[in-house]
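Fold this sequence, please.
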Amino acid sequence: MNRQIIRLALDLGPLLIFFGSFKYFGIFGATAAFMVAVLAALAIGWWIERRISPMPLFTAVLVVIFGGLTLYLQNDIFIKMKPTVLYAFFGALLLAGLSFNRLFIKYIFAQAFELTETGWKKLTVRWGLFFLALAAANEAVWRSTSTDTWVSFKVWGILPLIFLFALAQTPLVMKHQAHSGKNDA
């Protein structure tokens, strides 16, 4: 099986388990299932690749911490805040790294494509701001809607937004291909 398909299944599987569990067991059952699924995905990823990528590891740590607080305190606010913290962290990390001339986004996408320095910087700014916008959107939705609506937004709103945003970066990636021979300006 293709490694990219496996990686996609390991990344999306826990979220889909969360959504399915929510329908049958409510937010607390879904949170418990999500925690188990994230840890299982991390273990399977390590077993297949013999390494753990930083993003899934950080996500798993947040799921365990915020999920644990949700279950221990029987308060769903913590699991609702987890995406905000995750997206804000990623956005801040990308933008702060850029200010120190560190292009962390290269570590994520370097296997997929090679860009000029200008291309990496522009992509970093776009993804950094996008992650901050996702954090703000998550905050707005969980604070102003029902838990049912928030769960649906988390699965069926955020995922398509990320996919569409990634797709919208194609012209930038094509323009700034390192081997394209174009000027770096």
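The first helix runs from residue 3 to 49. DSSP finds seven helices and no strands in the chain.
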